[in-house]
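Is it possible to get an amino acid sequence alongside its tokenized fold?
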Amino acid sequence: MRKILYVEDDLINALVMQKLLKSEFEVIHSPDGETCMEILEKENFGLILMDINLGKGKMNGVETMHEIKAHPKTKDIRVIAVTSYALPEDRDRFLREGFDAYIPKPVDREALLKTIHQYLA
């Protein structure tokens, strides 16, 4: 089963995502950017789903994505923004920042799966 890392500070959102994807993917949860980087040192993932507002962590989702893209080991992992910033200009802003794709919350399961399959193909 392919592994996806979901970086999300809200435990309920993380559990919902795991439930949405469990039939096709193993979803590993990271509560913040710092933990995300620690997990990436030890494990390999085909894809990362990244919340933008990571609460109490030192890094937000954009900063964490930049850190991922800056490391030789992780620079090629696709990172998809999954966020409640849902205005049309937010999508453009996150894509300009360097995210591979953007999915607004609340997440539509079919759109999510379509995007994941597109980037894992």
